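Today's session is about reading a structure prediction critically. Students often jump straight to the picture, but the first step is always the sequence itself: look for stretches that repeat, for charged clusters, for runs of hydrophobic residues. Only then move on to the predicted structure, which in these notes is written as discrete structure tokens rather than atom positions. Here is the chain we will use throughout the hour.
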Amino acid sequence: MRTRTRRSNTAALGALLITGTLVVTGCSSSSKSTSSGSSAIPTPSAVASLAAQVPAGIKSSGQLVVAADASYAPNEFKDANGNIVGMDVDLAKAIAQTLGLTANVQNSDFTSIIPGITSNKYNLGMSSFTDTKEREGTVDMVTYFSAGTSTAVKAGNPQKVDPNDLCGKKVAVQTGTTQADEIKNVLNPACSKAGKPTIPNNGDQFDLQTDVTQAVVSGRDDVMLADSPVVDYAVKQTNGQLETIGSVSDTAPYGIVVAKGSPLGPAVQGAVTELMANGTYKAILEKWGVQAGAVNQSVINGATS
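Below is the predicted structure for this chain, in token form.
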């Protein structure tokens, strides 16, 4: 959120909505099993060939310092005890273990993470960063997930929401997200142009994603828009009170942020590939209910725009 996923092309989306075709919906060694939260995920063994690629300074410290903005469930957030948890956190720990290290995940403001990478304050940034050409000019990005925008409604879709046409529907979104911007800048102008009622209030906006979810569960709003892993997690956490409709749109890869040209980049990319091969990657995504964003290959700097 907060512009972590890339924004849609407004002109194209507006045209599609008017014509009725827009879908507004919406990353081997031996291992042993351990328990993490309520789900068992494998604990990967270190891979010597990958560990050998780790820069000497990091290797001697024994730690992989990872920055995350812990405000974005289920990818990175704080649990009831104040611990930083989430899909990205579990993946960071598994990557570190594969490299023969221990992950030291630190909470950081989202906008401070890339500067922290370039100043060597952090070794990695794992905070739902979309891999973009602009970011690749400053840092390297190791792809590991795919996210876009998804749509969710109350189970059974009692308001008969059509994901192709949200005009006139009460839509819940989190404040400051691309979804909120899209309602104001894309969807409502397109509704007006088509002679249809607009989405009231440019969407009902909430500071917390949990309040967005509750607005739909309670029936206050008809539908919610959010990043695809967030919606998948909300469906899981509400125990069937919500369901997704349509498909994910405007998808783009998430990337692990690494210093530009660092040998740590290929080591991390190799670790992600290893985790995909040994089943750890799949188990982590399934634990957090975000397996729909799984990718089959990790690359360095895979941005398309």
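Discussion point for the tutorial: The longest strand covers residues 242-259.
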